[in-house]
Amino acid sequence: MKIRKRYILLILIALLPIYKFIHLDDYCFGDEDLVVVGAFVVLFFIVFIVILFDNLYSISVQKELFNFRPIIIAVFYGLGFFLFLKYHEKNVLKNSGGVYNIRSAERKLVQVTIFTDNTFEVKKEGINESCFNRGSYKIKKDTLFLSFNKKDNYPTDTIYQLNKKEKLLFPLNK
Prior knowledge:
Layout: H1 5-15, H2 18-21, E1 27-30, H3 31-62, H4 69-87, E2 96-103, E3 109-115, E4 119-125, E5 129-140, E6 143-148, E7 159-163, E8 168-171
Helix pairs in contact: 1-3, 1-4
């Protein structure tokens, strides 16, 4: 079975948006990233249509059988793209220990998600983007101590009073 270059090209274009969805460190995701991902989707769709019409031409002129490979690639691409778009802000490989809210001075919602492996993720929502910072934490009695991975600037305070009943954090070091 011969794999043609056009199918490899289609698969490579389908894999391009993944770098915008997989985040190993602190990151921000916003409207600009959605435009880049949308451009990759349009590019994939154009290449898919060209390959599909070439296959239809081969059917009518050269009496070949219809090739389902581009349709199979498009179905997997659509399913994968949907899952990446839906779950790119969630840590599906970690168990959540709770989600706590902080009201910041700018009236933006800040969420701290703590995980059972003593790591956390801070989500700060802006108008056009959401920023995520990660690190590790310690809990002593009702106090939460955050230690961010990047030491240059903290998006929030580092010591909080923990209210598990109302799922709120109150800053202690202003």
